[in-house]
Design brief:
By secondary structure, the chain is an alpha+beta fold. The protein folds into three domains: 147 residues, Sandwich (Immunoglobulin-like); 146 residues, Immunoglobulin-like, CATH 2.60.40.680; 62 residues, Orthogonal Bundle (Type 1 dockerin domain), CATH 1.10.1330. The chain is built from six helices and 26 strands. Strands 2, 4, 7, 8, 10, 11 and 13 form a seven-stranded mixed beta sheet that branches. Helix 1 packs parallel to helix 4 and helix 4 packs antiparallel against helix 6. The longest helix has 21 residues.
């Protein structure tokens, strides 16, 4: 029987090696952005006109409950009619779910959904809100739309209540007489780590705009994360310096890292990394815990020579560190047992057949404990099976 299993494993590994020799792949990092993303539109409108704002949800998940709010300035925006359901809302209904909305409080729209006897997992539009923009709204103003996801959980029958990792991106209604491009996007990483290890979080900019000033803060739980060393300089920071800019950072307050950059005699327009922060995760962090890192952009502007200041439209995505359990080498499917199914799953993954492997599974997949997941690990899993 062992010889039969060895032949099967040998065939799998030979196929993998052949595939990798034809199409080389890079080393697979253990940190994956496996979170779900909630994103509100940033749209452009004229005063005294109607505008639609959509909330989308992307990423793989299986949920049983969701509570979400959208906050807006009710003096400048007035909701028109009922929200328009999207694919996610329809999927909740198809799973015999209950959906309740609340528009009683001015300036705050709420939606609560629960599927007691099933789950929903659709990607796409959750809902679209229609607004009328006040006639006295000023051209050039940006009306914030703040997204507040209160609950996003899995609660299977007979199982445990589990929070699903997610990020959220706020939106805005920008008042303009001309169509505008997409706003600049600021993004903090969402990564995975174990207690008592180090982890890196990068703030990056997506999209290019000429700017002269940027002030950003990263807020974090100082009881669970502690800064290690100095921030690592990124492409945007370097571009500021190259254009004669001044950069200052502040780490004096626990749980808050500050960055300010200004280019007095020109502008910067680089996209990519602004900086990377290195943290040590507390040994007291618990597996399954999600440590949120809140991104706060205080100033992103272009200062004209005549003294006027133009705010540049942007949205910001928070990041998180999701705490993983101690690894069980070889348990790729995380069922508590190391077996041949784990080899098959990992080989399929390495051959780009795209099976879903959880972050904990990726940690467990490093069966030879060399810090990466590659073609050597299926053989190491087999050694664990026949040796155990």
């Amino acid at each position: 029987m062992a010889r039969k299993h060895m032949k099967r494993l040998t065939a799998l590994i030979c196929a993998l090696v052949l595939a990798l020799s034809i199409t080389p792949i890079s080393a697979i990092a253990l940190q994956r952005d496996g979170t779900v993303s909630f994103k509100l539109d940033t749209v452009y409108s004229e005063p005294d006109s109607d505008v639609s704002v959509t909330l989308t949800l992307t990423g793989e998940y299986a949920a049983n409950a969701l509570t979400v709010f959208v906050d807006y300035d009710h003096e400048l925006l007035e909701m028109i009619g009922d929200p328009v359901p999207g694919e996610v809302w329809d999927d909740i209904s198809a799973a015999n779910g209950l959906v309740q909305t609340n528009t009683v409080t001015q300036g705050r729209f709420g939606l609560m959904a629960i599927t007691p006897n099933g789950e929903f997992s659709a990607q796409g539009v959750l809902f679209t809100l229609n607004f009328h923009v006040a006639a006295d709204a000023e051209i050039g103003a940006s009306i914030p739309l703040v997204l507040d996801v209160k609950q996003f959980t899995s609660y299977p029958v007979g199982g445990e209540l589990t929070s699903i990792p997610f990020t959220q991106t706020n939106g805005a209604v920008v008042l303009s007489t001309d169509p505008q491009p997409e706003p600049i996007r600021f993004m903090l990483d969402s990564v995975y780590a174990r207690p008592d290890t180090e982890v890196s979080i990068t703030l990056s900019i997506e999209g290019a705009a000429a700017a002269t000033a940027l002030t950003a803060f990263v807020n974090y739980n100082s009881e669970l994360l502690s800064l290690v060393g100095e921030p690592e300089v990124g492409a945007v920071w370097s571009d500021m310096i190259d254009h004669g800019g001044l950069v200052q950072t502040n780490t004096g307050k626990p749980g808050r890292f500050g960055f300010i950059g200004i280019v007095p005699q020109g502008d910067f327009c680089a996209s990519g990394s602004v900086f990377t922060l290195h943290f040590h995760v507390s040994p007291n962090a618990e597996p399954g815990e999600i440590i949120t890192l809140e991104l706060e952009i205080k100033q992103f502007t272009y200062n004209n020579l005549d003294g006027s200041v133009i705010s540049i439209p942007f949205n910001a995505t928070n990041g998180s560190v999701t705490i993983l359990d101690a690894p069980l080498p070889g348990d790729v499917d995380c069922n508590g047992i190391v077996q041949e199914a784990d080899i098959s799953l990992l080989v399929s993954y390495l051959m780009n057949y795209s099976p879903v492997i959880s972050p904990q599974g990726m940690l467990n997949a490093d069966a030879n404990l060399d810090g990466k997941v590659d073609v050597l690990d299926p053989a190491a899993i087999w050694s664990i099976i026949i040796g155990g």
